[in-house]
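fyi for ur records
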Amino acid sequence: MIEFSHIPVMLEECMKGLNLKPNGVYFDGTIGGGGHSYEILKRTSPNGRLIATDMDSFAIAAADKRLKEFAGRYKIYKSNYKDFAEVLKQERVDGLDGVLLDFGVSSFQLDEESRGFSYRKDAPLDMRMDETSALTAETVVNEYTQEELTRILKEYGEERFAARIAANVCRVRSSHRICRTGELAQIVEQSIPAKFHGNGPCARKTFQAIRIEVNKELEDLEAAVKGLTRSLKKGGRICILTFHSLEDRIVKNVFRDLETDCICDKSLPICVCGKKKEIEVITHKPLTATKEETEKNSRSKCAKLRIAERI
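which gave:
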């Protein structure tokens, strides 16, 4: 197995966005290889504390190794960040100074062939971030109905040729089970008219859609972002890195909702809705990676960073 590798995206922007406090308590919900977490611990005092979660056992092992010099100041749970409430309860934390969520797929997950995330390498159709979960990409591709496949490709991949791809997948699987990423990528390429082949890799959107379905990435995302933002102490910051428009749209809408004050009809003499502004959005337009960073790390090209502060 190759060594876990993950270059932290927009590292300085995230650290500045968190507005780190020396004795702060921070939550990294998607620790990956621990790049962002390392800097949080490095830039806070010996009393600063980090609580982290990840679903990937390999990521947790790599992060634990990377953070070993800060032993006693951090705890990593093999858990979904969406279950943050239970994790914070176990840690007896009732308020956070900062939250970081990085929704990017790590270089390790993309490059390790056995994981099946990449359409560029022929590998088993897997795509699980949690290697113990039952649902795999192979199951989705071979056992979902044509209608379900079409919906997933449209909703999660925003794929204009979703119906055609789903139909061809079902045609091929009627003769044999599709088990390899290479075959799926080939089916997708053959499903998309040649004149559209210059718009980037043909299989990118399909693989994104299936990965999101396998890992239930958008399920309860809105509630989790809202809950984590509300877990911040006054003045605490939340930084969220997204890598596709579906996640970014959800984060933007949650921030907008939490920043909105009274929503009563303006003709009413007094507020009856009781809604109060809970955050100040720091980035009304998301931050993006610098040209220098995108040249060094191509996976930062589509990253968007949104930041908000609890008031």
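The CA atoms of residues 111 and 233 lie 38 Å apart. thats all i got for now
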